[in-house]
TrEMBL record:
Enzyme class, UniProt record, top EC level: oxidoreductase
Keywords assigned by UniProt, alphabetized: Flavoprotein, FMN, NAD, Oxidoreductase
Record's protein name: FMN dependent NADH:quinone oxidoreductase
Domain (Flavodoxin-like fold) ranges: 3-205
Cofactor(s) recorded in Swiss-Prot or TrEMBL: FMN
Record's function text: Quinone reductase that provides resistance to thiol-specific stress caused by electrophilic quinones. Also exhibits azoreductase activity. Catalyzes the reductive cleavage of the azo bond in aromatic azo compounds to the corresponding amines.
A Pfam cross-reference name: Flavodoxin_2
Family the entry assigns: Belongs to the azoreductase type 1 family.
Subunit: Homodimer.
Matching Gene3D superfamilies: 3.40.50.360
Catalytic reactions on record: N,N-dimethyl-1,4-phenylenediamine + anthranilate + 2 NAD(+) = 2-(4-dimethylaminophenyl)diazenylbenzoate + 2 NADH + 2 H(+); 2 a quinone + NADH + H(+) = 2 a 1,4-benzosemiquinone + NAD(+)
Cofactor binding, per record: Binds 1 FMN per subunit.
Gene: azoR
Listed EC numbers: 1.6.5.-, 1.7.1.17
Length: 210
């Protein structure tokens, strides 16, 4: 049995969001193909994801300097403990499904905050004499992304920083198996329904072997 983190970053619902609509169909197909796997849905708009603020940085600094957890302030304790819980949950999972729209050529801020929370030395990577090394080998990931334009190829490819960013981060963690389902060109009202259906069909196929 595998554990899958289904990580969504959109404030609307599948009836209003292209990315969530595709993600919903993917997960339904995945559950049918893998009925014994555990799927944990992380709606990042409902999760408590601490920012790397003064409390977090000071709390980490105190711990690195030899202070005990009990010596931290209440705010430091709360945020540091929550960040540790987030990364531990991430490390314990076997597969990751990220679902997001492309906003301003990249991922939504809450998904960036989540990747910050999972980019912790000693958890997802470590520093060595030869540079950083990923620690999450043998896991796999998928990114479902919807965008108004086409960014996977053509003149806008150089400014695509959504899927490409997640791919780089996860490779940094040691996750080499990374797939993408892209619903591109949804800004066209005439073409959007067909684009959505094509992405859903693709998602159902990918789900069978993910």
């Amino acid at each position: 049995m595998a554990t899958v983190l289904y990580i969504t970053a959109h404030p609307l619902d599948p009836q209003e969001s292209f990315s969530l609509a595709v993600g919903k169909e993917f997960m339904e197909a995945y559950r049918k193909a893998n009925p014994n796997d555990e799927v944990v849905h992380l709606d990042l708009y409902k999760e408590n994801i601490p920012q790397f603020d003064a409390d977090v940085l000071r709390g980490w600094g105190k711990l690195q300097s030899g202070s005990t957890f009990g010596q931290l302030s209440d705010a430091e304790k709360s945020k540091v403990a929550r960040l540790e819980a987030i990364v531990d949950q991430f490390v314990a999972a076997d597969k990751y499904v990220y679902v997001s729209p492309m906003w301003n050529f990249s991922i939504p801020p809450l998904m960036k905050a989540y990747t910050d929370a999972t980019s912790i030395p000693g958890k997802t990577f470590k520093y060595t004499q030869n540079g950083p090394v990923g620690l999450l080998h043998g896991k796999k990931a998928l990114h479902i992304q919807a965008s108004g334009g086409v960014y996977s190829e053509g003149p806008l490819a150089d400014i695509e920083m959504g899927y490409s960013y997640l791919k780089k981060i996860l490779q940094f963690y040691g996750i080499q198996s990374m797939e993408a389902i892209l619903a591109e060109g949804t800004a066209s009202k005439e073409r959007a329904p067909a684009i959505k259906e094509k992405a859903i069909a693709h998602a159902k196929e990918v789900a069978k072997g993910f």
